[in-house]
Amino acid sequence: MVPFHPTGLSSSAKRIRRMLDPSYPLCREDVMWVLHFVQKKVALKDPALQDLSKPRLLQNFNSYCEAALLLLGSGNHFHTKNGDIRTCLLEAMHGLPELAEAISPAQARTFESMPSDPEDGIHTAASEQK
Predict the structure, then answer these.
(1) Four-residue CA torsion sign, 32, 37, 41, 43
(2) 31-71: per-residue pLDDT in tens?
(3) How many Å apart are CA 36 and CA 17, to the nearest integer?
């Protein structure tokens, strides 16, 4: 299999794109990178995050925390949680320009087909499995 190397993308967007690919096996370092990336964006008061509504920010935070908990609880079975963690990471990065840059039109259609946001603005990986 030939690795896919998109051109014209920032290094962050390239890494995010790779991690969002369902065929790419996530590792602990990938999850830690995203958590640190989001933490830096919040600490630097990224304007893209300041434009999000409070319910959306709470959903981002909830997903960030859920990804961290899945990482902590995964032990030696990290690969079995890839789908859940990938969903949490996507939700935690919602609104960031690097995520929008990383999602190609084909991937955007895949992510648009995900269940819509619940009325309270919060959803978890557990609620998506129902």
Answers:
(1) positive
(2) 999 999 999 999 999 999 999 999 999 999 999 999 999 88
(3) 17
Please state the pTM of the whole predicted model. 0.70
Which residue reads 């919040």 in tokens? 42
- DSSP string across 9-78: --HHHHHHHHHH-TTS---HHHHHHHHHHHHHHHHTT-HHHHTS-HHHHHHHHHHHHHHHHHHHH-TT-G
Instruction: Please provide the size of the chain in residues.
Output: 130
Residue 42 tokens, joined: 């919040």
Nearest residue to 16 via CA among 83, 102, 100: 102
* pLDDT band at residue 15 using 50, 70 and 90 as cut-offs: very high
To 10 degrees, the CA torsion angle through 90, 93, 96, 99?
-30
Q: Which residues contact 55 (CB under 8 A, 6 or more apart)?
A: 120, 121, 122
